Amino acid sequence: MRDKPSVALIGAGAMGGALLRGWLAGGVIATSRSMVFDPAINDAMKALCETHGVALNPSLDDAIKAGVDAVVIAVKPQMASDVLGRFAELASQAVVISVMAGKSVASISAALGGAVKITRAMPNLPAAIGKGMTGLYAPDVVDDADRGMVETLMHAAGETVWVGAEAEIDLVTAISGSGPAYYFLLTEALTEAGEALGLSKEVAAKLATSTFIGAGALMETEARSPSQMRRAVTSPGGTTEAALNILDGDAKAFGRLVDEAVRAAAARARALTD
Length: 274
Hints:
The protein is an alpha/beta fold. 52% of the residues lie in helices and 12% in strands. The protein folds into 2 domains: 7-165, Rossmann fold (3-Layer(aba) Sandwich), CATH 3.40.50.720; 179-272, Orthogonal Bundle (ProC C-terminal domain-like fold), CATH 1.10.3730.10.
């Protein structure tokens, strides 16, 4: 691998397109040696490839001759068996990064004709704006240099964290993969509570949404833990304490509910993985 990695991106839809935009904006890939494969690519992605000199749907023979450092698979999981076989020879020369949910290293290897250097990445929805959280897993055959390249490429989508076992990717799915939906649900519930008290829908939505965005931004800059910050907001006998006594209180009802929900998501992720 040279100073910047060359990449073959298979699938330039929502997630693949977000990654490509991040790579190009950050200047982290060798554009003249990189390529995108997507027969249904949209006009915006076409223009982006043309502007930066990234090859779009080159012949596989030419791609194999040129070789790439990384093959990033961003197609829908249900398309894997139909699509990946064509790229087996290209992938055999590279580190493979799969962002497909529910596809194990073993199943990806089989679809790619026995490719060995396969990593899994589980990004979440905010990756589309470079604010995502991606869990990464790689077997021992992927060395430190290759892991560094994987981390650099996935950092285009936001923050990254490595897990030590492939089974832990299911836990990543339950926490950060599904996590945005938990956030959206809480925002929705707080908005509805504001409406029920007499606020207009617009005002309640603005209050709920902006409050959560601000709290998240503050937590990102603070050295204090979420628990410490929660206590700092909660004055004894005050309004916040009254609300938290309902949500959690001595019975820890909210914490138990979240634990149960995350366990259900992890179990479902395990059931869906092949």
